[in-house]
Amino acid sequence: MDISSLRERAQTEPGSVTELNEYIKGRLESDSRLSRIYIRGEISNFTRHFSGHLYFSLKDENSQIRAVMFRSAASALTFVPEDGMKVLVTGSVSLYVKGGSYQIYVTSLRPDGLGALYLAYERLKQKLAAEGLFAEERKRPLPPFPKKIGVITSPTGAAIRDVLHITGRRYPLADIVLYPALVQGEGAPQSLLKGLAYFEASDADVVIIGRGGGSIEDLWAFNSEAVARKIATMPQPIVSAVGHETDFTICDFVADLRAPTPSAAAELCVPDIRELLMSLDAAAARAAAALSHTAKRKRERVLAYKERLSLLGKGRLFEDKKQRLLRCHEKIKGAAKAEFMKRHAEISIKAEKLEALSPLKVLRRGYCAARTERGALSSVEQASVGEDLFILVSDGKILATVKEKERYSDGR
Fold first, then answer.
1. CA distance 306 to 402
2. CATH number for the domain including 39?
3. What is residue 32's predicted lDDT score, i.e. its pLDDT?
4. What is each CA distance from 327 to 294, 323, 332, in whole angstroms?
5. Global pTM?
6. Maximum average pLDDT range among 33-37, 70-74, 195-199, 297-301
7. What pLDDT, on a 0 to 100 scale, did the predictor assign at position 230?
8. CA 221 to each of CA 79, 282, 371: distance values in angstroms, whole numbers, following the listed order
9. N-term to C-term CA, the chain
10. How far is CA 351 from CA 276, 278, 286, 348, 412, in A?
11. Greater model confidence, 6 or 280
12. C-alpha atoms less than 13 angstroms from C-alpha of 230 in its C-beta half-sphere
C-alpha cells in the first residue's frame, strides 16, 4: 500500500496497524542506503536462541539499535560474540512488522581490530580447553603404513605441492586424495567443514588439514569453533599443518598431531621405504645369527655328553645309554637344523615379498611411474594435454609436460 492510498482511506475509514507497519517496512527496504549498511558498534543484551539465531543490540556512546543474525549467517562465524565486544557489522535495515520495531538484519559480523581478534581467539581457546578438547589422552596415534591420506587445503597453494613431493619421495605406495577447500575469507570455515565431512565418510587412514603461513586474519578460518568441534569428532586421526612454525591456531590444539608446516605433516604421516627395507635386512641378519648361536650351543652340549660317555668304559649298560644319547643327539641336531632352515626360509620369503613390492625394484628394471599433482596415473584418461607430469625413475624424478596422448585400441 502506498502513501496516497493511506491518505485517501484516512478521509473515509481507518487503516490497520499491520498496514502501516508493512508500509514503513517497504519504505525502509526501498532505500538503497539502508539495503546494505556497514557500521561499528558494541554488542549488548546478547542472546543465542535455541534455533541458532542471534539477537543483540548494537550501541555507541549516544544510541543503540536492535539486531538479529539468522542461523544461516551465524553458522559461518569464527568467534563467539559476547556482551561488550566491539564489532564491525554488515547487513540491512528493515522493520519487524509483528513487533513494530525496526532493526538491523546482520549478514556479516567480525571483531573490530586486531586486538579483538586475539581476544576472541583466547576466549575460544580457554573455552575448548575447559571442555577437554585439547587433552592429550584423547589424541590418537597415526597409522604406521597409511594406504590413503586425505588433504584439505587449497588446490593452488604450495601446501599440496609440498605434501605430494614429500610422500612421493618417502612412501609412493600411499594414495593422496585432495579436497579443494577455501583456506581464508568469509566462506573458508564452511568449506573446511565440507572437506572434513567428505573424509569422515571415506576410507582415508589419516587426514591433513592446513595451509601456508599468513597473518592472523589469513589464518582465521582455522580458529573457527565449528571446525574445531568437527575435528574432535572425526573417526580418523587429524594432522593440523597451518602456517609456519610460530603460528598456532585452534585447529592445532584440537588435532591429534600438530605439524609446523605442510611438508612436516607429510613426513610425519608416512615412513621412509628405504629405511624399512634396511630395517628388514637387519632383522633377518639378527634372526639368522640367533638361530646359529642356538644350534651351536646344543651341539656343544651333545658333544659334552658324548665325552662323558666315553669315560664310563665298556659295558652293555653303558653302551645302551651311549646309543640312546647318540640318537638323542641326532634328533636334537636334526630338529635344530630343521628349525634353522624353517626360520631362514620364512625370512627369505618375507624379504622377497617386500623386495617385490618395492617400487624401486620395478624402476631399476627400466620402468618409470607417472604422477600428477592429483595422484598416480594408471590410464591415459587421467592425464590432460598440457598438464605437468612427475616421471619417477630409479634415481630421481623428471618433470615433463603432456604434448599428446593415445589410447591403445585393444585396451592395453
1. 76
2. 2.40.50.140
3. 83
4. 19, 6, 9
5. 0.51
6. 195-199
7. 97
8. 10, 47, 31
9. 74
10. 11, 11, 14, 5, 31
11. 280
12. 21
Does residue 406 sit within a domain? Answer: no
Q: How far is CA 234 from CA 111, 125, 188, 205, 207, in A?
A: 29, 19, 19, 11, 9
Q: Which three cell numbers stand for residue 44?
A: 549488548
The mean-pLDDT minimum among 48-57, 132-141, 176-185, 286-295 falls in 286-295
pLDDT of residue 309: 65
Q: Domain range spanning residue 146? A: 130-269
Three-state secondary structure call for residue 108: strand
Pick from 112, 141, 157: which residue ends a domain? 112
154 plus 229 within the same structural domain: yes
Sheet holding 206-211, edge to edge: 175-180, 148-153, 206-211, 238-242, 257-258
Residue 409 inside a domain? The answer is: no
DSSP string over 20-78: HHHHHHHHHHH-HHHHSEEEEEEEEEEEE-TTS-EEEEEE-SS-EEEEEE-HHHHTT-S
> Tell me, what DSSP letter sits at residue 243?
S
- Statement to judge: residues 225 and 152 lie in one domain: yes
